[in-house]
Amino acid sequence: MCNLYRMTKNAGEVAAWFDAREAAGGANFAAEVYPGYSGLVVAEARVRAMVWGFPLVLTGKQGQKLKPKPVNNARADKLSTFFWRQAFAQRRCLIPLTAWAEAEGPKGRMTRTWLTLPDAPLFAAAGVWRPSAEWGDCYAMVMTDSAGSDAATVHERMPVLLAPGDQAIWLGGSAAEALALCRPWRGPITISRSDEPWVRRSPPPTNGPSGSTNRPPAR
């Protein structure tokens, strides 16, 4: 499951690429996007910054409310469930990215493996979004089985990647038409294994919900 991705283009470049309007006031996001922090999405023909992850409100042993957990991935086979159903039916979006990462290696020493589309400086993953009381507008990335894709050598699941001709269907088609796009990517994928530790110990960025950390979840 994707818990880290890169988006190295600015909002203006994204708006031009997807023929969308850039939201007034600019957009605050980092080049590496983590759950619970801001990333760019294309929704309602606009490029906007939202928080990556739907808030899941947790309750402690004494019944007290805990800080929400960002649920940043939506499995394609769960889109009809209560947690995702309304967003999938009414608020689908594109998530621009330049690469996504998966963790590989032994526990405690996992490193980052980056996956990209060759000769594609920017591409889109399928997303859903909704407003929230906790963080404002937020989004999640739709994931599917990676079987038959180059990505299967890295992880059993991958983001739903949308070819340019399928993006309008994802955004405006029926739920059945959109669900039919939730399949593994059949084109080539470039896989770049690195020595970067999966969990970094650097200070957190400042543009996410209170309590988030500057690292992907442990795997």
| Count of beta strands | 16
Uncertain spans, ≥5 residues at pLDDT below 50?
A: 203-208, 210-215
Largest sheet: 9 strands, mixed
Q: CA-to-CA gap between the ends?
A: 10 Å
Average pLDDT, rounded to a whole number, is 90
CATH homologous superfamily label: SOS response associated peptidase-like
CATH topology term: hypothetical protein yedk fold
Summarize the amount of helix as a percent range. Answer: 10-25%
In short:
The protein has 219 residues and is α+β, with helices and mostly antiparallel strands.
Structure, described:
The protein is α+β, with helices and mostly antiparallel strands and 219 residues long. The chain has a single domain, classed as SOS response associated peptidase-like (hypothetical protein yedk fold, Alpha-Beta Complex), CATH 3.90.1680.10. It contains 4 helices and 16 strands. It has helices spanning 11-17, 82-90, 164-172, 175-180; strands spanning 5-6, 21-22, 32-33, 38-43, 46-52, 54-56, 69-71, 73-75, 92-97, 99-104, 111-116, 123-130, 138-145, 157-159, 161-162, 190-197. The strands form 3 sheets. Strands 2, 4, 5, 8, 9, 12, 13, 14 and 15 form a 9-stranded mixed beta sheet that branches. Strand 12 (123-130) and strand 13 (138-145) form a beta hairpin. The longest helix is centred in the middle third of the chain and has 9 residues, at 82-90. The termini are close together.
